[in-house]
Amino acid sequence: MRTATRIGGVLWVATGVLRAQAADEPLQVVGATGPFATLLADCRTGLQHGTTSAPEARAHAMLGHLRLGEVASARDCLAAAVDGLADADAASDVACWATVAHLWYLRATGDAATVQPRLASLQRLLPAAPYPRAPAPRFAEAAMRPHAWFCLAALLDRTGGSAATAAACRRQAGRLWLELEGHSWQPGRGHFRPHPTQGAIRVPEGPDPSVLAPAAAGFLVASEDRLLRHLRTCVATLPAGDGDGRAMAWRLSAATQLGEEAPMRRAWAELLGADRRAVVGDASHAGRWLDAALFATTGLRLATGAGLDEGCVRLRPWLPPGHPQLALRGLLADAARWDLELTLRGGDLHADERGEPALADLPPGPRLRAALRLRHTIDGGARTIVLQGPGVQYVVPMTAGDAFACSLPLPP
User: Average pLDDT of 231-239?
Assistant: First the structure.
């Protein structure tokens, strides 16, 4: 991989204004046509008028509002996510999803004042056992437990909490994950089994879409190369068209994480061709689908996990089929607002492309022009972006008002 780092020549512009809390700035997607435009409209409708109930549903509704730049609505969903903590029977599962959602929210908005007062309650209620109380625990549910403990450690780190407590949370997360991994990994099949063995001897088990859910929620932890093997195996072998709205979003998220063109195109076509009546009536479906679609087109994760892209904003843009150009204005990420414009180019290099390292050894041909602008940051500070394409990445420090553009090779 060729890496080009732009350090000199950056225009450093002070914002002059410090924002204590992110404000609403609705996302604008310009250039979306056909089923993609309809999907975006249906997701907006679902988030505005759909209902939610379960802890996971509330977390994904909040994620959808973050994607739309609707910080106040996301904050309301976050408050609803902790409502169930008073119910002792369900408190541990509520606490897992609420903890993860708080990290998503904090990473996107920088709003520590909303998050910090709830951390002690979340820590008290997070489950220490490796599996939910159920006759046959599922991998997806069990994985949320170490994920939540890792996220709590990250929340403590980011809000000035006790370093010793954060370290204890990470140890707890590691213990839970290693036990789950030992009871779920199938080396002969190359993926995690949907139902952990809990130490019993069981016959091998094929994947189902739910085993992709933890990665879609930002849990990208596994020993050695098991995570990539798991995602690649599941994306290649799981059948499409099962009608489960969650499964479609999980598959697109996994294909995006892998960054492989053919699986992304298949998953994209499945999502856009599906019946979206559930999206209009269910805010959590709307949030999942919107997150998957915008993760695919930008490569920008908002469903983040502990240690994932800490200290940088990572983008891997992708123009969906049938879209020669696309502009996303007002993206919310890392307590900042961004504009991203994508354009398909062909033929000889344009004047603004000459000398770019990504194109130096390539013959003229189709390529993706990506232009990023940092509108403003909540704290007035700088941000580091990592802009990736096939075989190349740019690492660029930016402050408010800065712009950066480059052309990226397209996959063969």
Answer: 94
Residue 53 CB-half CA count within 13 A: 2
Pair of tokens at residue 227: 């995570």
Higher model confidence: residue 359 or residue 142?
Answer: 142
Q: What is the pLDDT of residues 261-288, one digit of tens each?
A: 999 999 999 999 988 888 898 999 999 9
Strands 185-186 and 336-345: unpaired
| Maximal C-alpha separation, the chain | 65
Cβ–Cβ < 8 Å for 384, 395 = yes
Task: Using the predicted structure, report yes or no on whether residue 324 has a pLDDT greater than 80.
Answer: yes
Determine the Cα–Cα distance for residues 369 and 358; give it in Å rounded to an integer.
11
Among residues 354, 374, 373, 372, the alpha carbon closest in space to that of 364 is found at 354
Concatenated DSSP letters of 136-172: S--HHHHHHHHHHHHHHHHHHHHTT--HHHHHHHHHH
Q: How far apart are CA 250 and CA 17, in angstroms?
A: 39
Angle, vertex CA 67, rays to CA 329 and CA 308, nearest 5: 105
Q: What is the dihedral of CA 348, 352, 354, 358, to 10 degrees?
A: -90
End-to-end CA gap in the chain: 16
Per-residue pLDDT of 179-210, as tens digits, reads 999 999 999 999 999 999 988 888 889 999 99
The pTM of the full predicted model, rounded to 2 decimals, is 0.92
Tokens of 83: 């409502």
For the chain, how many residues are written?
Answer: 412
Q: Which residues contact 79 (CB under 8 A, 6 or more apart)?
A: none
Chain segment 106-142, per-residue pLDDT in tens:
999 999 999 999 999 999 999 999 887 766 689 999 9
Distance CA 215, CA 201 (A): 26
Cα angle 141-296-372, degrees, rounded to a multiple of 5: 130
